[in-house]
Amino acid sequence: MILIVGSTGAGKTTYARRLADELGGVRFSIDEWMTALFWQDSPQPIEFEWTIERVRRCEAQIMATARQLVSRGVPCILDLGFTTKEHRNRFRAFAAEAGLTAAVHFIDIPADERWLRVNRRNIERGETYAMQVDRQMFDFMEAMWEPPLETEWSADGGCRIDGSQSA
After folding, report:
1. At what angle do helices 135-144 and 111-124 cross, to 10 degrees?
2. CATH code of residue 23
């Protein structure tokens, strides 16, 4: 399994798509799952607890499916944000329990550049657009962001990617 890590607007989905194609793997994107399954029913304004409960449901199903795929030799590329170290640790623990590895691919790019990308994505609504991300949502996620340390992304074949190459 490959955990795609980066804050909002880093280019995670673009990178995950490219990597899935290169490896012949299956990509899981939490934004796509949430948009397809729950977003039309979401309370307005968005409520964090409501959202996180549904994210956890999606992740449980993603874990079950990824376990099956990886056990059959199919790489799984997880584009789930992995904003916090706790979130990454939970997936690494899951991988270890299943006898798998979870490599971290960290897309590192400054916040100001990421905000410009988010604005562009909001306007263009291209291939990687899943939902509108306003400045308040961006800042909320930014306050939660815990970049991985080198010890996280250098283990199990992980890497740090210059974000200017990811979007």
Report:
1. 140
2. 3.40.50.300
